[in-house]
Write the structure tokens for this entry.
Amino acid sequence: MAVSEYVEACLYDPDDGFYMRAGGGRAGGHSGHFLTAPEVGPLFGAVLARALDRWWAELGEPDPFPVIDWGAGPGTLARSILAAEPACMVSGALRLVLVEVSPAQRASHPGHPSVASVARVSDAVPEGASAGVVVANELLDNLPFDVVCRTADGWEELRVTVEDGARGRFSLVAVPASPEFVAGLPEVAAGTRVPVQRAARNWVAEARRVLGRGRIVAFDYGAETRVLAERAGRSDDPAAGLGWLRTHRDHDDGSWWLADPGSCDITADVALDQVQAEHRAEVTTQAEFLRRYGIDELVAEGRAAWAERSGIGDLDALRARSRLSEAEALLDPNGLGAFRVLVWPVGDDTAGHG
Ligand SMILES: C[S@@+](CC[C@H](N)C(=O)[O-])C[C@H]1O[C@@H](n2cnc3c(N)ncnc32)[C@H](O)[C@@H]1O
């Protein structure tokens, strides 16, 4: 089978997929498998709440103002946005739509008059009718991808077979890749292997169809396809690691991705050029994005509150101190701060604005 079918089954099989099982695939500190920016603490959502207010104002304060959190996981980002009480919420315009395929994770979504929790975006938002925002934190790296290998005279697609591999139950076999499959890929060195991210590319097109005007904002780790080829290195060994593909479970590496389907998260660095093939995005680092929307101000507030209340040691004091350590994690140039933020303006009147 195609690698994308295999990854789809491993992650999203209705019964056995890593994300679909009760308790499976949850982001989070204590109860989760991996830590995402919203799970670091409420600061990420507080900055995003400020960004939402700025974009809402630029759009002319539409009411309703749909903000779609696509791949919302357990809904932690939504909780932090609501707690920050942005003006778009206080005015009653905000409609937070949490789109999440996993029923187990939807069960954790907050019950709130401004929140809708759905499996598909079409269940809550009619196509093209809205002036709003689509947000996706660490969704694109979790969408199924295929794998191709550059040879001396063309491209081969790697597919999953049931033959025992050196590292477990399944292995990879190479077949000639169809021209449509590899159309648009850049030149990379012979022997290197790269992902083909059609689902992520299609997601951008789908998100664009949902909004009449506004922005699509995707946070994720990624690099250009050429860089991913170097990360994978050259190898004839089908059991060699790919560099840009990782597995996670319980805050640690999971098993070899072909060994134990459904047991762990399978994630690929996002090929930034591939997801922008049809529409170019503005690309910044997460640290730059958070600074643009006021993280430094929120940290200064936290520092002042900590200085005032550390002697009292109450909950407000602890929250203030936590803000400082959250900022450090979110801005870390070797960690979350280096993630990429891709912003696609949709409709004319938002293009070129901050
Ligand atoms: C890595 S988690 C990120 C969760 C959350 N955004 C966060 O940052 O903590 C990716 C989530 O996307 C969900 N997902 C994957 N494909 C999806 C799709 N097509 N529509 C909606 N949710 C999807 C998965 O079930 C999973 O909960």
In short: The longest helix spans residues 315-331. Residues 350-354 have pLDDT under 50 and may be disordered.
